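Side project, low priority. Logging it here so it doesn't get lost.
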Amino acid sequence: MGKPERTVLAIGAGVLALVLIAVVVVLAAGSSEPQDFPPGSPEAALQQYVETLRTGDREAALALLSASARERVKDDDYFPSPYCGGTDDRRVRITDTVLTGDRAIITVTVQEASSSIFDFDQYEYTQTVPMKLEDGQWRVDEPYVCF
């Protein structure tokens, strides 16, 4: 094997090592346990709603919506969307909650990562979710929350 072939192999091995390291870092960062929120809090209600989206349980998702949000989706056969909900390469964290009486606005940060042999991309965005206290229970006040 000549010097050019060894150089190409060394560069290829280096690139592969960097990709593997990046994948390990992303998996380690995304493998944390779910956040723990007090029962009855708006954050716990949102967390439960997200879990129903992930499982596709329409009845459970509807039960966690406010009355006005349920009214908006009562005839929507595509609720919850099969494209909605977390995937293995997505990490969703509640980063802020603002309470105002019987309303709350929860800010969620979503991190997504993708990688291939040739590149590694990580995206992050925030989304707000309105919540409403009805009959002593926090409910999601926007039916088309999706992350």
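Brief comment: Confidence is low (pLDDT under 50) at residues 24-28.
Revisit when time allows.
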